[in-house]
Queue: 4 jobs
Job 1
Amino acid sequence: MTSLLDNLNPEQLAAVTLPPQPALILAGAGSGKTRVLTTRIAWLISTGQTTPHGLLAVTFTNKAAKEMLARLSAMLPINTRGMWIGTFHGLCNRLLRAHYRDAGLPETFQILDSADQLAAIKRLLKALNVDDEKYPPRDLQHFINGNKEAGVRADAADAWDDWTRKKVALYAEYERQCQKEGVVDFAELLLRAYELLTRNEPLRAHYQSRFRHILVDEFQDTNRLQYLWLKLLAGHGGPAPAAVFAVGDDDQSIYAFRGADVGNMRDFEREFAVKSVIRLEQNYRSHGNILDAANAIIANNSRRLGKNLWTEAGAGEPIRLYEALTDMDEARWIVEEIQSLIRDGAARSDIALLYRSNAQSRVLEHQLFSTGIPYRVYGGLRFFERQEIKHALAYLRLIANADDDTAFARVVNFPTRGIGARSLELLADSARTYNTSLYATVPHLAGRPAASLAVFVRLIEDMRQATRDLPLPEVIDHVLEHSGLRAHYRAEREGEERLANLDELLNAGANFISEAEDPTLTGFLAHASLEAGEHQADAGQEAIQLMTVHAAKGLEFDAVFLTGVEEGLFPHENSIQETDGLEEERRLMYVAVTRARKRLYLTLAQSRMLHGQTRYSLKSRFIDEIPPQLIKWLTPRQAAQRYYEPSLEAAHRTPPRASASVARDTGGFRIGQLVRHAKFGEGVIVSAEGSGGDAKLQINFGGSHGMKWLMLGMAKLEAV
Ligand code: ATP
Ligand code: MG
C-alpha cells in the first residue's frame, strides 16, 4: 500500500489521503489532478474505507473512464467491472436502465444523439405545420437543451413574449413526442436521472447510502444540472452527506458554449463548506519552455482563480514556429517533420496534431494519407454518426423498440421500397389521430400505401423473431443482410468504404460483448449513442493522433503540432468580439499548449482554403503572448505582420502596418487598417479574400455591428 503513495509529492499526498470530507483540488494542467483522483480511489479501497461498490467517479470522456479503470486494476488486485466510473451521461443512462419503470421509460428506451434529436424536431415541426423559418429547428434544439440543462421542464419554462410562448409550447410537444416514442436525448438523460432521484425517496436513500464517496474530474466543465445532480446524490444538507472530492482547473474551462459553468467551483466551495482547497503547482508533464509559454498566455486572462505552474524538468527544446504560405504547405511541412521524428525513434501514438476546427483536418489527413503514415482521427465525423452506420443502427433500434419514430423514419424507405412521401404523410397524420407510433399505426392504414408499409413492418418483425436468441454480432450480421443494406452498398459505385464500415460495426459488436456489463442489443445501442466518436480511438493502434483541441483535454503527448494558429481561426472569429469569448479561446489555447510533454510546434498558413473559400490571415495574437525567447522561428519572421486588436481603441493605439501577404490587390487596403463605412462607422480590417473586383474584406466594427464581410467594390470604404 505504501507503494501506492510512493510517487506523490507532499501536496498530492495530502490530497489523496484527505479524510472523508468535501474537497476541492484546484490545480493547473499536468499537475497530477487525474492521477491524484485515481490514486485516491485506490487508497480508499485498499485501506478499507470503501469498497469498489461504494464509490462513484465522474470523468469527462468514456476514454478517460476506461483509462481510470485500467490504472485501478494495475494498482489493486480488484475486479473493476461493475464500478460506477463513467461520464455523467453514461452514469445517468445506467441509473435509468436500472430503474426504467420508476423513471417512466420503456425498458428498451433509445438514446437520441444530437443529429437524431434535430431530425426528431424537424419531424415535429412538420407534423404541426410550424413555419421552420420562424422557428428554425436548430434554434429550437438549443432552446430545449438549454432549458433541460438548467433543469427546467416545458411546464416551468419562462415565456416573456408570443414567440417564446410558442417555443415553450413546441418544447412541450417535443417532450410528448419523445415520451410516446420511448426515446431520450442527451440532456434528458441527466434531467430524468435527476428527477428520478428527487421524486423517489427510497431510491435516493438507497444510492445516498451506497455512494459514500463521489469523485469528479474536470469539475470546471460541469453544467448546472450536473452540479445539482451531484448535490442530490451526495445528500447535501442531509445528516450524512457523502464525501465529494472534486478536481478541476478554472483555466481549462472550455465548454461554456455547452452550458458549462465555472461558477460551480465557487458554489461548491461555499455550499459544501470546503475547508481546504488544495493547490498543486508542480507540473510533471511538460518541459520548462512549454510551461512558461502556457503560463504567459493564460496570464492575459483577467478572471482567474490564480495559480502558476513550475517544473523540475528543465527548459527543454524551444517552441518551434513554422509559418507556411498555404495550408497545403503547412500540412506538407508537418508531415516531413513527423517523418523525421519517427526516424529519430518517436512512437506515432506519442505525436498529436491538434486543430481548432474540424474542417482543418481534411488537408492534414490528405497529406498523411498520401505519405502512407497511419493516423487516427478522434471526433470529426464519428464512426457511429456515419450515414451507413446510422442506417444499420436504426434497424437495430426498431428491433429493440418499434415505437422509435426517428429510427422508423430513417429506414422505412432505405433501401428504397417504393414508399413515397405521400404515404408517409398519411401515416404520420393517422399516427397523430390515434396517438400511436408510426410503426403501430401501420395496421390501421388502408389502401395501397398500407400494403408496402405492411411489408416493411413484417420485415422488422421477421428480423426480430430470427435474431431473438442470437449473440449480438450475429444479430448485427443478420440485420445487415436482411435489411438490404449490404446489397444496397454493394451496388453503389463508391460503396466499398461503407461496406467496410458496416463490417467494422460487426467488430464493434464483438468488442462490446467481450467488455460490457450489459452485453445486450439495448446495451450496445446505448453505447453507440454515448460513445460516438471515441470508438475509433482504440489505444492499441500505432498511429498519429488527430483531434480538435476540445477533444484533447486531459490527454498528453510527447510531441504536439498545433496547426492554424491564426487570427480568425484561433482565436476563432466568432469569439473575438467579446471578452468572454476571447478568454475562453485563450483557455483553449492553454489547454492546447499544455498537452505537450517535450516538443511543441505551432504552425500557421498565410492563406488557406476553408469552407470553399481562400482566406488570408495573420498569425494569432496568442503567438505574440508567448515570450519571444521561448520561440524558435523556422521561417523568416514576417516583421511586417502584426496581429490586430479587436477593439477600435486598441487599433488607434497600434498604428496599422502593411501586411506583405495581403496588401497586393485589395484596392490599397491593408489588414490592420482603420476604415470608415457609411453605415457601420469605423472598423478595422481583419482579413481579406479574393482579389481585384472580387475582393472581400472582413472588418470588425466593434459594438453592435461586430464583424462583417463586405465586397470591396460595393462597400465604399474610406481610409481613416
Ligand atoms: P490536466 O489538467 O491536463 O487534466 P492533470 O492535472 O490531470 O492534467 P495528470 O494527467 O494527472 O495531470 O498528470 C500529468 C502527468 O504527470 C502524467 O503523466 C502523470 O503520470 C504525471 N505525474 C503526476 N504526478 C506525478 C508525480 N508525483 N511524479 C511523477 N509523475 C507524475
Ligand atoms: Mg486530468
Job 2
Amino acid sequence: MARSALLNVMVQAAFKAGRSLSRDFGEVQNLQVSLKGPSDYVSQADKKAEDVIRRELLKARPTYGFLGEESEEEKGTDGQHRWIVDPLDGTTNFLHGIPHFAVSIGLERQGEMVAGVVYNPVTDELFTAERGGGSFVNDRRMRVAARKTLTDCVIGTGVPHLGRGKHGQFLIELRNVMGEVAGIRRSGSAALDLAYVAAGRFDGFWEDGLSPWDIAAGIILIREAGGFISDRSGGNRIFETGAVVTGNERIQRELMQALKRPVE
Ligand code: 2AM
Ligand code: CA
Ligand code: CA
Ligand code: CA
C-alpha cells in the first residue's frame, strides 16, 4: 500500500491528535467540560486535539481552507482545497470513559472528497482512503460487506440528540428498519460507524442531523471500499442535508426504501 505524501500528512496529524486524546482519556475526570447547547459537550481534549491537527495540516499546506468542529472556519487562499476535521468524534463516549471515539480528517477538492482518515487511538485502528487508491484498515484493503438482503444485515444508526432532530420521525424509521434487519447498533461515533461500513463490519448505516466533519472522511472511505453513500433521496447533498444512508449498492437502496415506508 503506497500512501501519497498528503495522505501521510493526514495520518501523522491523526496520530499526533490521537496521542493527545489518549493522554486526556486517561485523566478524563480532570478535564474541563463545557456545554455548547443541550447535550452538546466539548472538553479541553477536543480543543487541544483540533489545535494539533490544524497546526500539522496547515504547516504542510498553508493555503488550504480549514473547517473544524471546534473553531471558526478558515477560508484559505487556495479556493479549491479544504480540510474537514472532527478532532474527537464520540465526545459523549469519551467523557463517560467508553473507549469508542475517533479522530476524523477529510480533504475536499472542488467540492469532492478526495482523501480521508479515521483513527481510533484506543484500538490503534487507522482507516484511510484516497480517490482511486482504495480503502485500508491499517495495511489491509477494506471492502464493504456483500450481503444481498436486509434480513441478514447489521445496520448502524444514531439517535437524535436532546433538543435536536425529530425524535418521533426517528422512532418510526427505527421501527421500520428493525422489522427488516438482523440487528441494529448505535455506537455514538458517526465517523467510526462509517469506517465500520467501509470495513464490512456494519452492512449499512443511516443518521440525520450530522455535520460535514462527522462524515467527510467516511464518505471517501466508503466509496473507495466499493460502497454507496448518499443523502436521503439517493443524491449527493449530504453536507447540505446532514443526512446519510449507506451500504453496498443493494443494501443502500433497500435501506432508503425501508426508511421511507409509511407506518401501518
Ligand atoms: P461529536 O462527538 O463529535 O459531537 C453520534 O451519533 C454523532 O453525533 C457523533 O458524530 C457526535 O459527534 C454527534 N453529536 C453528539 N452530540 C451531539 C449534539 N448535541 N448535537 C449534534 N451532534 C452531536
Ligand atoms: Ca461535538
Ligand atoms: Ca462529530
Ligand atoms: Ca467532535
Job 3
Amino acid sequence: MKRVFVDELIEVEEQLVLLKGWIHKIKSFGKFTFVFLRDKTGVVQLVVDDEDMISNLKLEMSVEVEGMLVKNEKAPNSIEIHVRKMKMIGKTYYDLLPFSINQKKVNASLETELDYRYMSLRRPDRRAVFKVQEEIVESFRRYLKEKGFSEIHTPKIIASGTEGGSEMFTVNYFEKRAFLAQSPQFYKQMMVGAGFESVFEIGHAYRAELHNTWRHLNEYVSLDVELGFIEDENELMDLEEGFLKFLFDHLKETCQKELKGYDIELPKIEKIPRIPLSDAQKILLEDYNKKSPTGNIDAEGEVLFSKYIKEKYNSDFVFLTKYPVAKRPMYAMPDDENREMTKSFDLIYKGLEITTGGQRIHDYELLKENIIRFGLKPEDFGFYLDSFKYGMPPHGGFAIGLERLTMKIMNLENIRESTLLPRDMNRIMP
Ligand code: AMO
C-alpha cells in the first residue's frame, strides 16, 4: 500500500490507508484510546481499541499505521483513522522528554530548546518558522531569476576582510592565515564586472561578534544582490521594495497555516519612506530627546524611529539613506552633492536593521584612493582592486539577513528562534 501524508487525507475517500509518523499524543476515554499521529504535514486522530497495541505505545516513537479512514464531524479536521495494524519502526530510549512536543506551552527555556533542537523542531509551531524561512528563500530566488539575475556561489574561505578589519574569524589555511567570509561583497561585485551583470547569492556569512545579543549571530544566512549598470542607489531600493511586495504575496499564498498559527498579519507594502540619516537623527533628538552616535543610530534609536515612521507613514519599513563615508566600508560610493556622505542605505523593519546596501565605487583610481584614505594598503586588496582596471560598470547591491527578516515577520523576540542551528559565543553544538 502506498503511504499517504496527513494533509492528503482530506482528499481521500473512506478506505484503508497507510500512514507513517510519530506518536504525538495519547488520550484515553474509557474503552477507546485516541492516539494522535504526526508527520511532516500535520496531525491526525487514530482510534485504537486493541489493549496490547496501546500498552506498547510511547510518545514520539515512530510508527507505521494501517487503518480505515472514517469521516467523523467530531474529530479534528473531521477525519479519524480506525487502526487495524500498528508497527513500531523507530524505538525510543528515554525516561522523560526534554520538554513537551504536544502542549501549547513548551515548559523549557530557549537554551534547552536549542540544546535539543532535533526535538524542538518536532513541534509544529517551531517547524512553522522554518517553513516561512524556506519560502522567503524561495521567493528571493524566484523574484530575482524572473528579473534575469544569475545565482552564484562564492568562496567562504577568503584572504582579506570586506567589511572592515574586526569581527573576523581566522582559519589556519595550510601555511597561511585565512578568514571566514563576513559577506560575499568583493566576489559579488567582481562577478558583475565578470560579465554576469546582475547576481544574487544565498549563503552563510561569518561575524566574530564579541557579544551575545537577541539580534546577532556568529554565522548567518545572507541574501545578497549585486546589480550592474545602475543609475544610482534608488534603483537598488526600488528592487528591494519590489522583492518585499513579491515576498509578502508569496507568503500569503504558501504559508497561510503557519502565519495564522502565529497570528501574523502581513504588511502591505506601498512606497517605503526614504529618509536621510541626518534627518532621522534630528527627529529622534527633537521628538524623543534621543541622542544618536555620530553618523549612525543605535538599536534604541532604530526602535524609536520605526515607531515614528509607523505613526507618520503607517509603514513597518523605512530606508535610512546617505550614511557618512566614515561609517561605511571603503567600497561605498561617495554622494555627488556631499563627498562626506555615501550613496548607501539601511532598511529598518519593525525597529531592526535587516539590510545594508548602496552604490559602490567602480572607478579604479577612486577606489585605490579610498582604500588609502581608510588607512588600508591597496596591495592587501590586490585581486579585488585589479578587477576594476577593465571597465567596471557603475553598480551596487544590498544584503538581507535571512534570520532577521524571518524573526521580524514572525514577531519573534530572539534571532536564535529563527535560526535552525544557531552559532553564538557559547554555542557550536548541536
Ligand atoms: P552588513 O554588515 O550591514 O552589510 O550586513 C548585512 C545584513 O546582514 C545581517 N547581519 C547579521 N545578521 C545576524 N547576525 C549578525 N551578526 C549579522 N550581521 C549582519 C543584517 C544586516 O543588515 N556587504 C554588506 C551588504 C551590501 O552592501 O551589499 C554587508 O554585509 O540583516
Job 4
Amino acid sequence: MTDPQLVLAECVQQALAAAFGADFSDADPLIRPSQFADYQANVAMSLGKRLRRAPREVAQEIADRLTEISPPGKTEAGFPGTVEVSGPGFLNITLDDSWIAGRATEMLADPHTGVAVTDEPQTVVIDYSAPNAAKEMHVGHLRTTIVGDALARVHEHIGNKVVRQNHLGDWGTPFGMLIEHLLDIGEEAAVAQLEAGGSNEYYQAARSKFDSDPEFNRRARARVVTLQAEEPETMRLWHIFMNATVSYFNKVYTRLGITLTDEDIAGESMYNPMLAQVCDELQERGIAVISDGALCIFPPGFTGREDQPLPFMIRKSDGGYGYATTDMATIRYRVQDLKADRIIYVIGATQALHMSMLYASARMAGWLPDHVRAEHVQIGSVLGSDGKMFKTRSGKSIKLVELLDEADERAAAVIADREYDDATRAEIAHAVGMGAVKYADLSVSHDSEYVFDFDRMLALTGNTGPYLQYATARIRSIFRRGGVDPAQATGPIVLGHPAERALALRLLGFGSAVAEMAEESVPHRLAAFLFDTASAFTAFYENCPVLRDDVEETVRASRLALCALTLRVLETGLDLLGVPVPERM
Ligand code: ARG
C-alpha cells in the first residue's frame, strides 16, 4: 500500500481503536488533502457527537495515540510524520520526507508501479461500442467505444478476466430493404460504399425506395420473412452487407487503437434464435404477462403517467421482438454462459430507463443473481458548438473516418514548427490527433455532455491529451540527452526541494487512481490524476535541474529516479486510457 491517504486512514483507524475501543475502528477517518499540512483527518468532529465530548479533546486523544502507530508495511517503528490539532478539532498531518522518499523508491522497484493486481480475478463483461449497421456510426458511438475500451484495459491490467461484447445493431426489419438495395445496386458497388463509411447514404437510398416504390416495398417485406427464417441465400447477402459494414467499423477501431476484434462481436443477430424461448419461459413462469396483446414484464417500482405500472415489452402485439427482448437474452447469456461476475454496459445516458428496467426484469426472472453486479456506465452526448448533437459545420452528419482525418490534419498543424522528417511528423501527428480525440472523451465524467471542439482538445496546455503526451515525451528526451536508460534510474530517491516532495507525494497516489477507475468506472479520475502528476512534474522540472553539471551525483540519481517514476506512471496511465504516446513530440 503506497497511497498516503489509504495508509493514513489505516493508521487513524488503529489509533481510534486504541483510544476508544474496537467499536470505533470502523469510523471513516475522513482523510482529505489539506491547505496547512499534507492531509487532514476530520473524524474527530463527527466522533465528538457520538462520544458526547468536545471534538478538540477527541482530536488530541487520537493525535496522542497516532504517534505510537506504525503504518502497514513499514519496517522501522513509529508514525512517519507529525500530527497537530487545529481549529475546532482537525488533525493536520505532515508526512516525513524520508517516508515519502522510501515509498517512492519502493514503487519504482515494483514491476506493477504501486498498482494492486488481484489474486481473485473477476469475469468482467463489458458491452461497448455497439454501432448500428443500418445507420451511421456517429460520434456518440465513438465515445462509448473510447470509454469502454479504457475500462477493458484497466480491468485487464488489474488482473480481471475481461470479455468484450460488441453488441452490434445487425438485425431487424430494416435489413429487408438493405438487402434488396444491395441487389439493386450490385454487390460490388454496395461493398465499396459501405466499406467507405457510406452506410447513411446507403440507408437513405433504400429508405426512399421503400417509401415511394411499391414493388421495392413488397420485395423488402418478403426479404424480412426469409431473413427471419435464415434462408441461405438471404443469409449470404446479409453476410456481405455485414462484412462490409464491419470492415468500416474496424477501420475506425484501428485508427483509434481500440482493442475490439471480430471475436468480440456479439450482435443482436446472435441472440435472434433465443428470443422465442426467452419469451416462452418468462410467460410460462408468470414473470411476463399479456397486456393489450403484447407480452410485458412489469418490474416493481416503475410507473408512468397517472401511476400506471410501466411495461417492459418483450414481444409486440404483432408477435415481433424488440430491443428489450434481445437485452433480456444478453443478460441471461452473460451470466449463464460467460459466467460474468460483473456486467458493464457502456451505453448512452438516454437509455437509462431501459437499462434499469432491464436489470429489474432480469432480477425478477432470476437471470441476474444478487452476486452479479450490473451497471450502466452512462455516456453523455457530444454536442456541436451550437449546443445541439454534434454533426458538422454544414449541419450534415459526418463520417467518423473524415473526422479522424481532420484530427490528424489539425494535429499536424500543431506540430508544424518541429524539425522532423515527413514520416516522423506524420506518426506524431497521428498519435497527437487520436490522443486528443480520445482524451477529450475520457477527461470529462462519462455522463456529462461536452462540446466537441478541435481547438480545445488539441491545445498543448491544460488538461488535454497533447499536454500529457508532451510531458511524457519530454521526460523521455531527458533520458535521451543524458544517455541514461530509464530502467537504470533506480534512485534512491531523496527529497530536498519542495517541488520534489510534491511530485513524489503525488506519484504515490497512482495505485489508488487506477483502482478507483476500475471500481467506479471513472476514467476521468485517472485522467485528472495524470494531469496533476504532469503539472507537478512541470513544477519540479522548472525548479530542479537534473542533468546540469553542477548537480551533485546523489541528487542527480534521485532526480533521474523521480523522472523515471513519473515516466512510468504517465506511460502506464495513458496506456490504460488508450492514449498513445509518440516517442518524441
Ligand atoms: N446499438 C445500440 C445503439 O446504438 C447500443 C446497444 C448497446 N448494448 C445493449 N446491450 N443494449 O444505441
